[in-house]
Amino acid sequence: MPQSQQEEEGDVVEIVTTIGDRDVVDEGHFTNESAQILIGEIMGCNRDLENIKQNINDVQNKTKNIIDGLGRV
Fold first, then answer.
1. How many other C-beta atoms can be found within 10 angstroms of the C-beta atom of residue 34?
2. Are 34 and 8 in contact (CB under 8 A)?
3. Where does the source fall among the domains of life (predicted)?
4. Is the pTM of the predicted complex or chain greater than 0.90?
């Protein structure tokens, strides 16, 4: 199982990836600060996903416009 450790002002958070897409945080080292870090990571991932969705929509629209243009030729 892959695992990582992150140090933040003396606090250590250990995240162990289990079967599936769930992360389990060792409760003995979990703090409010650790939670804020993880929430920030989630927010960053959500922003990245929104950007990817927008890029996909842009590419689909460009492709549709190209196909429409070719249909007129």
1. 19
2. yes
3. Eukaryota
4. no
Spell out the residues 6+ positions from residue 1 whose beta carbon is closer than 8 angstroms to its own: 16, 17, 18
How far is residue 3's CA from residue 46's CA, in Å, rounded to a whole number?
Answer: 22
Q: Name 6's Cβ contacts closer than 8 Å, sequence gap at least 6.
A: 12, 13, 15, 37
Distance between CA 25 and CA 21 in Å, rounded?
13
| Residue 8: both structure tokens together | 């933040």
pLDDT in tens, the chain (73 residues): 344 444 444 555 555 555 456 555 566 677 888 889 999 999 999 999 999 999 999 999 999 999 999 998 8
Phi, psi of 33 (to 5 degrees): -65, -40
